[in-house]
Automatic annotation (TrEMBL):
GO terms for biological process: DNA damage response. Signal peptide: none annotated. SUPFAM superfamilies: PIN domain-like. This is XPG-I domain-containing protein.
Length: 250
């Protein structure tokens, strides 16, 4: 989701770290304990989990996997497996859901403002695991970016690249490695800034979304591609700032 092709361009940055999710947070938590700080807080884009679980079940059904034939329980089983992975980590977790203030149209289609039919079941699972839920005023990815930018969460876990455009500074993306679901990509904007050749500003990312096409205008500017917009936007310096704020979750 988000600007098509932008993940592939960003992941070329030498500052992107491919690592074990477990190892990363064990090391991070130990460092925080030594510094008398709270455990790291992860903000999760809840809608991406639902849609990715649905896609996994549909794909399995095409290959006639028996477990995928039971519909909704199979989808919830996929979500449960991912929750079981998070519960093992020394972190606090908040799942952010889309709110009613979302744009009426996205990717050229009218947005359904009614919550996904699995939302209630998903939220019950989240609370049973001792995690937190939060409903955004509008787009969950925009809320997650704001929470990250203001220091209320330390990382955004999502597959939606738009969180960068909204201002997120520390993003975790799970790559498509079916053999190792613990493998993730860590995008830390200050680290990415160190590489001049691929440096981007937030304004540059917005430029890419407008000219190359994104969720809110899929076509972009005629004659532009995401790649060409990226090359032009890369001439700007990547400048970010952080604003302090009290944590809501710990």
């Amino acid at each position: 989701m988000g600007v098509k092709g932008l993940w592939e361009l960003l992941r070329k940055n030498p500052g992107v770290k491919v690592t074990s999710l477990t190892d990363w947070f064990v090391n991070d938590a130990v460092a925080r304990i030594n510094d008398s700080r709270n455990a790291p807080v992860i903000g999760v884009d809840a809608s991406t989990w639902i849609y990715e679980a649905q896609a996994a079940v549909m794909q399995a059904s095409k290959h006639r996997a028996a477990w995928a034939r039971i519909g909704q329980p199979a989808i919830m089983k996929c979500i449960l497996d991912r929750l079981l992975q998070l519960i093992k980590l020394p972190v606090a977790v908040v799942f952010v859901f889309d709110g009613n203030g979302r744009p009426q149209y996205k990717r050229g289609r009218k947005v359904k403002t009614k919550p996904h039919y699995l939302t209630g079941h998903f939220q019950a699972f989240i609370k049973a695991f001792g995690f937190h839920t939060h409903t955004a005023p509008g787009e969950a990815e925009a809320e997650l970016a704001w929470l990250n930018l203001t220091g209320q969460i330390d990382y955004v876990l999502t597959s939606d690249v738009d969180v960068f455009i909204f201002g997120a500074t520390s993003v975790i993306r799970r790559p498509l490695n079916k053999d190792n679901y613990d493998e993730v990509e860590i995008y830390h904007v200050p680290t990415l800034q160190a590489y001049e050749r691929v440096r981007l500003s937030r304004a540059g990312l917005i430029f890419i979304a407008i000219f190359g096409g994104g969720d809110y205008d899929p076509d972009g500017l005629k004659g532009f591609t995401v790649e060409s917009a990226y090359m032009l936007a890369g001439h700007q310096s990547l400048v970010t700032g952080s604003v302090g704020g009290d944590r809501r979750w710990s």
